[in-house]
Design brief:
- With about 170 residues, this protein is α+β, with helices and mostly antiparallel strands.
- The protein folds into two domains: about 1-40, no CATH class; about 50-145, Alpha-Beta Plaits (2-Layer Sandwich).
- About 30% of the residues lie in helices and about 25% in strands.
- It is built from six helices and ten strands.
- The protein is elongated.
Length: about 170
């Protein structure tokens, strides 16, 4: 196996071309024991899973960017229980720079902004995009989000540097 440790602290490993993740998971306990000799924080080994990024529109700043809100920690705690099957493996973040959002809010230019976050499982994501997301009893429109970077690839023209919806 070729194992690597990424910046987020996740250890990823690629098995031999003729081996599957299911085969490796038959040795789950051995793998965990070996991994904990390098990093005591390893607690589990799982198959590869898909994480898709979603964007929620019109998130009220008064609730999630006010005093004592711990930024978006409240929102994360409210999202999972109200949306069946939703698992958020990382933190939520504002789509714009938080300082800019705060300044615009203080001048009265905006009262809401957009938030992006990862959700585990493509089927769950498709369902959430179809019906929306519920937060504290309020339904929000949501869409998949792709971060455009220089290494992004447009599958319409097979070109680098942009994504399909910007083509």
């Amino acid at each position: 196996m070729n194992a690597k440790w990424n910046a987020k602290g996740t250890i990823t490993a690629i098995t031999h071309p003729n081996a599957t993740a299911e085969m490796a998971l038959q040795y789950r306990e051995i793998i965990i024991t070996a991994a904990t000799t390098v990093n005591k924080e390893v607690v589990d080994v799982k198959e590869n899973e898909s994480w898709d990024m979603l964007k929620i529109h019109t998130v009220p700043l008064i609730r999630y960017m006010g005093k004592g809100t711990d930024d978006l920690l409240w929102m994360r705690e409210e999202l999972e229980p109200e949306n069946e099957g939703m698992v958020i493996p990382t933190g939520l973040r504002w789509l714009a720079i938080p300082r800019t959002i705060k300044e615009s809010r203080q001048t009265g230019e905006i009262a809401a902004s957009s938030v992006v976050f990862f959700v585990k499982g493509s089927n769950v994501v498709q369902n959430l995009v179809k019906k929306g997301i519920k937060v504290v009893g309020v339904w929000y429109r949501v869409e998949t989000y792709t971060n455009e970077r220089p290494d992004s690839r447009c599958h319409l023209r097979c070109a680098w540097g942009h994504i399909e919806n910007k083509c």
